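Shipment paperwork, digital attachment
Item: protein structure file
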Amino acid sequence: MMGCMTEVREVDCGEPLAGIAYLDAWRRELRPVPGSVPPLAGFDPGAIASAATSTATSTAASSGVVSEAVGDAVSVAVDAAAGLAAVDVCGLDAGALSDLAQGAEHVRRMLEAVSARIAGHIDDANPFREQGYFNSKTFLKQRLQLSGAEAFRRVQVARLHDTLPDWAEAEADGRVGVAQSELMARVVANPRVDRDALRRDAGMLLDDAMTLPYTEFERNVRTWEALADPDGDRDRNERQKGERDVAMRPRPEGGWALTGMLPELDGAEFVEIWGRFVDAEWQADWAVARARLGDAASPSDLPRTEAQRRADALVAMARAAVTNTTAPGATPRPTVDVLVDQDSLETWLAGGSPSPNRYRNVVCRTRSGRRLHPDDAVNAALVGHVRRVVYDASGTVIDLGRRSRLFRGSAREAVMLLLTTCVWVGCDRPVHWCDADHSTGWKAHGATVPRQGQPLCHGHNLLKERGFRVHRDNHGHWHIIDPDGNPVL
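Attachment content:
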């Protein structure tokens, strides 16, 4: 036990203090013995900034006083942040608000890169060991008031920067998001990932991080890691199956809490069934709103929230199961689409694994975009009913011609296989909660063929009828144009 004594003093502040004010006063009065761990965590940013005006000549290493250069730098950053904070966001139009949001995010990314660089140096040199901080995580938790998980992630990102300098440069320039860097840092920390393969493919992954939405980047990174570490991926898949669990627990305040976890393929089947019941609940609500308001009805007029409809749909599923009279052993099963590219399937069937640098071309997922382990996909191909899905060069599934006004049967399925979520920018509604909609409306002679269709959630399908246009270019990219002819970004 360390023999460390701290003088205890009464805090005389004139009037009684409480809460944060009392703690601040206590902190000012305490004088820890040099070299001991401070009795309170935290720091005063104002003290750092004001150190720029200090006339002290001792260095930070010898006396703990922040150098004038660091004080100047922090003072400039604090002033810049204060300038952003002073902007009246309520008075901005949409364009200015978008600029401010992007500018603030750019600054945040750059500051996160600086924080990671600092954490990395502390991790390497650990100049605070004599004060009792035996590792960088302890120092970051105590002095910066970080959670253990946040301190760990910051050090992980620093190690990512050491391994991939180009990534460090891109993050320092604000071109890579914080979440993207933290995810990539976790992959780099995987000891089973081959370093040469990582450095070979890092450029492609960095390009994905800077250009793709986060969900697509995450899917690509996880695919790459699975190909680079097939043994680890198989272990994770088996562990996931072993941890399957569903529980219903009564809550003290009333009601029941439903929690659980299903393996990937079982979960995909469950969601497919549940999605149909959720859609039925939405259709029932929409019929009520239309009967009450006619053409003026909108999604905001529905009597139940989306969360309530999901809960009611789950109960409806259970009731439907009780009333099911299908003979045991002949339970009807929904169609669950498993998408696998032919080259990868043939490689897996032969007992091999595709090269990690093919990750952009490897498809092994459910309709909703959830990645499947190759073993599950191969087993489904061997023992299940397989539906072959053929894509042309632009990624369009089959062409059925102008046969009907509505997308039905295989035509609807082809449209819903184009994407994993609603096509609208930023919408993450899964496809099984969407409608198959025409890019060019039927009244405008739009053909009911997959290349003229896209999945749209109910809300955006209604919004589209107010003058928005949705179309797909020859490269397979989707574009949404507002009634004034401007692209929605």
